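Private note to self, pasted from the team thread so I don't lose it. Backbone tokens:
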């Protein structure tokens, strides 16, 4: 029985420094949100986390370009490639949000249910928004056969 391969599993994985550079700003933004910070700090950290997600996923799509072209050649649609990259971004956002929630609960002793739900949505939604342009570029990779 063959298992269908989803485009998210194509090509090289995100490196650990890139993953850390993506998760830490998201987690810091979640910590600021739960701690009740207001003002420009939260917006600045949110902007930095969006830029970090964008840079990480742009590099990832550039590294996976050849594999995405082969997937397109074997029948993956543009929508599947787009959804695969956004799914991976959502998982990164969820991991960063959980990291921030864990820090708030363990180190700071803070836990507010409403803030936690908002932080999770902000982490996942922010990562998806940050990876939207790289996912769009990945979906526009033309199908290509093997090179000689």
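Design output:
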């Amino acid at each position: 029985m063959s298992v269908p391969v989803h485009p998210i599993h194509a090509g090289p994985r995100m490196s650990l420094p890139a993953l850390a550079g993506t998760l830490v700003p998201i987690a810091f933004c979640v910590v600021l949100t739960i701690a009740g910070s207001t003002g420009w700090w939260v917006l600045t950290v949110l902007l930095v986390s969006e830029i970090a997600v964008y840079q990480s996923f742009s590099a990832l799509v550039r590294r996976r370009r050849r594999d995405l072209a082969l997937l397109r050649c074997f029948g993956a649609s543009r929508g599947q490639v787009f959804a695969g990259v956004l799914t991976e971004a959502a998982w990164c956002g969820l991991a960063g949000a959980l990291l921030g929630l864990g820090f708030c609960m363990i180190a700071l002793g803070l836990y507010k249910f409403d803030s936690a739900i908002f932080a999770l949505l902000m982490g996942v939604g922010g990562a998806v928004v940050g990876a939207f342009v790289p996912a769009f570029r990945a979906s526009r990779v033309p199908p290509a056969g093997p090179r000689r």
